[in-house]
Amino acid sequence: MTRGNQRERDRERAQARKAGAKGRDDGLTPEQRRERDKKALEEKKAKKTQAGSDCGGGAADNKGDKK
């Protein structure tokens, strides 16, 4: 019922994964992080709507105009 050194290898691999993991050590509180993320999403949404209005959006109008 022995597992040999598998446990030790698994611990080493877990430590290696933990060290490479992206941490949340940005010094922000959860509320500040939410505000930052909310602002980023609003900017992204505004940019997307701006890009959508720039291209005209007339694809639906040209549906049956093949001559």
TrEMBL record:
- According to its UniProt record, which protein family does this protein belong to? Belongs to the SERF family.
Which InterPro entries does the record associate with it? SERF-like_N, SERF1/2-like
Q: Which top-rank group of organisms is this from?
A: Eukaryota
Give the matching Pfam families. SERF-like_N (PF04419)
**Feature: compositional bias, Basic and acidic residues:** 1-15, 22-45
Location of the region described as Disordered in the Swiss-Prot/TrEMBL record: 1-67
Q: Which residues form the Small EDRK-rich factor-like N-terminal domain?
A: 1-34
What name does the UniProt record give this protein? Small EDRK-rich factor-like N-terminal domain-containing protein
